[in-house]
Amino acid sequence: MLGSLAFRVRAFARAAASAVAQMGRRRPVLATAIVILLGVFLGGRIGLQLILYSQVSGTTGTAQQRAELFELLRPVALANCRVERFGEAYDGGYLQCANLLTGVQAGYSYGIDGYDQWGCDVSTKLQVPVHQYDCFDTKRPACPGGQTVFHEECVADGRRTEEGRLFDTMQSQTAKNGDGSKRIVLKIDVEGAEWASFLSAPDELLSRIDQIAVEFHGIDEEKSLAAVRRLKQFFVVAHIHFNNATCFGGMKPFPAWAYEVLFVNKRLAVVDPTPKAVGVHPLASPNIPFFSDCQPTAE
Q1: Fewest beta carbons within 10 Å, which of 122, 126, 176, 196?
Q2: What is the pLDDT of residues 221-231, one digit of tens each?
Q3: Please, which residues have CB within 8 angstroms of residue 203's CB and are 6 or more apart in sequence?
């Protein structure tokens, strides 16, 4: 777990978004907002980069592994996807094929860190319950008009307790919630635990997930390629976005250490047969709004 890095990235993103919002309000607060922006930008950017360089050791894989994974995650164009953004305007927001979510009966949001606009949007727009999981930050976010259920538990490749924190598998958690046969949409941002969690998910579960929005973190030399190959048995990659709080030269050809991927189930996705470049979608806003971005050019 790289929790300290994730905490600082998210705290920075929320502070940045708050400062940007203030600039659109009454003139007396404009000067304060500018001071906040400058302070967050100058201090936060340097701090985040120092933390990133100090914590990515052992999570960047080999050049060959990175090249293979980058190719596996190259998105395809879908002919039947109407993209909408679910969640926050910046960090914490994810693109989904909204028109392909109509059959979803429940949502699962893993790693919420005290806030979960994605889960609230899914619940209110689709009128389904969303189960939220986090055993590190146990704050229960409000969702007016939605049905969200918080679980003080984390996801992993097996059931266990570590330092008083409960971990369990996706399969077990969905079954305990009565969703063992339901179609679900899933978001997961769990600082590296995603690789093993996906590898432990049985075929039956993966076949019922309509879409997965995941933030991957670096490369696990033993699990990353296997996990993505397994996911691609059931899903196509519809979108990838690189977290600009983690732009990092040591991950080439990846421009950033953390990267958000949308997987759409093959039983729903219609791949556009016309060869075309898949670039950055206009709704894919940067995680940190005034950091320079590092999205690759469409090929």
Answers
A1: 176
A2: 899 999 999 99
A3: 234
